[in-house]
Design goal:
Two copies of one chain form a homodimer. Chain A has 356 residues and is an alpha+beta fold. Chain A has helices spanning 7-10, 12-24, 60-63, 69-86, 106-121, 173-184, 193-204, 210-219, 232-242, 258-266, 271-275, 297-300, 339-346; strands at residues 38-40, 47-55, 90-100, 127-134, 139-148, 164-167, 222-227, 246-250, 284-288, 304-310, 316-318, 324-326. Helix content of chain A is 35%, strand content 21%. At the A-B interface, helix 1, strand 1, strand 2, helix 4 and strand 3 of A face helix 1, strand 1, strand 2, helix 4 and strand 3 of B.
Chain lengths: 356, 356
Amino acid sequence: MTASLTVRDLGEKRIIAEIIRPMCELADVPIGIGDDAAMLSVPAGKSLLVSTDKIPEDLLAVQIGLMDAFHHGRYLATVNISDIAAMGGEPAGLLVTLALPSDFSLQYLTDFYKGLIQGCSEWGIGIVGGDLGGGTTPCFSAVAVGFVEPAQVLRRNGASVGDQVFATGPIGGFNTALLYFIVAKPRGLALSSKDEEYLRCKLVHPIAQVRKGRLLAASGLCRSCMDITDGVARTLFELADCSRKGLAIREDLLPVHPATAEVAEFLGKPARDVVFGIGLDLELLGTIACPRDGLPASLRDELVVIGIVKEEQGNVLVAPDGERIPIPSQGWQHFAGSALDLVKASAPVTRDPAPR
Amino acid sequence: MTASLTVRDLGEKRIIAEIIRPMCELADVPIGIGDDAAMLSVPAGKSLLVSTDKIPEDLLAVQIGLMDAFHHGRYLATVNISDIAAMGGEPAGLLVTLALPSDFSLQYLTDFYKGLIQGCSEWGIGIVGGDLGGGTTPCFSAVAVGFVEPAQVLRRNGASVGDQVFATGPIGGFNTALLYFIVAKPRGLALSSKDEEYLRCKLVHPIAQVRKGRLLAASGLCRSCMDITDGVARTLFELADCSRKGLAIREDLLPVHPATAEVAEFLGKPARDVVFGIGLDLELLGTIACPRDGLPASLRDELVVIGIVKEEQGNVLVAPDGERIPIPSQGWQHFAGSALDLVKASAPVTRDPAPR
């Protein structure tokens, strides 16, 4: 395929017949692409989970040249599969809906689909359907389908006072990466190549926490759960708000990569401001009932406990010296302005000299 | 709400919390909007159907001022539910994914959701989830979920030689309406107010054929089926192509509204050219095995037989005088140009004088 071909050159029907369908044909479903709807059999005793997410047309990692078409497609698959993970489900299939301008590159579309299929295959599923249409600007969205035992499903709204607040892994890495690549690195901060690669992966290669979601569901102990897609502070706010409770998060327990502190220091702000910024970490945050004899072995090494559920609403960060700092409720919100502006605004343009 | 408010004024989270969620709360699902995914229980013995369709951002009926926000939303719901109908399924829920520019009217969005909910309630379902995000231009898409007995599902690819070709109702009305409102009426054709209203409904108030799809599925006789979304000729082509057969359609059997002949005559073209043009009639087209003693009573009054399946590929229209006219394979295709240009190009700019 020559690099200059656009979707107009082949047209909708030929793109589906000659590019998309052959790539997707291995999907293990009885009826998929080519019929009006996909048909999937549902395991006995399970309920259906279905979720849809679009990703911004101007994804920052694409804008700044860190993300290629393959990882762009994988990203769309992964953020959708992550919604199934956040409910404790097992993914079953993905549908992909794209609106593309007629001069959109066919090569980009093909590589995007390769990434979508990669993102699916990581969880043993395939692309089972979708829709391809025209648009003035690109619109990338997908639908994840999954199954779950209805009695085990993870919801957002069951937090109880005394529950432990957990994260499934490091948080704040996405926002650290944005601040590093967009602000700090251009101003001269040079992290080690290992740390830089770690941050690059946070932006371009997120991981859906399906396995940990399934463990949480099976444990019967998880009382609320969601994935981090709009920033850590916003996720903590929504989690607490759904249960009309408050969360007390211990700053010394936050699972934060050392690069976050380096970037924060360079920008002259506390590391917590970076952790609680915008960002799509995809780790699960939630609350869990803690049995008298501690978490079961199956969960002990999978979760990081970061705080506790309290009665009074309003989330607070408890600093090591005992100071209680309110955690803001904001995070990423559509229609509030561009993500790039938000990142730039969150970093002071010049560092204040340290007080003497 | 004042008419001048835009989505930027409220922001994503408040729009969902204050407008969308309250409107959707009656949806009868255990878990829906507010969690990461919707959960639906699956009736025993049934398989899942899931489909996604976006509608063009520049829908012609909106462009020409015939369709308001309410019917725009209802249209999005209906074309998605129609995909479940085409598979013989029963609808179970709808998810809605919108990308909107930040100056998009909140009033339009609210009315759009009222229409979505109306389109769902016609089939006893509700909106169970979705995603709302920003975009340079609007992108309207949805996901329909349904259930079907796996042994009864209607597919596209089972047509056998000798099957009867059926339609569930009148065809060509959508294209007739486009040609009337965009070309013929501005040039002076005045249909009766009843016919004009009929054509207006074809554009702005399509009906998903869920009931007839269910009857076809239950009959065990339907061998191929799809809904008309890209024009009658294109649908007949895809249906035949999926089974590697040909269809012989009898012109005298086509269920065509008298207004189609009037518009065609005014434009100086045969009625069949109007019937086979672009258009989203949403009637089902398919093929059915005809028992020796004729169609069962349950189907006899529900279908119009319009032709027969033949071995040789290539669809033909058999005129009343026996002439066999090839039916073109084209129809509406994304990336091929604007629908408005297509409609205008399909009508001669001046009528040829009738030969004397």
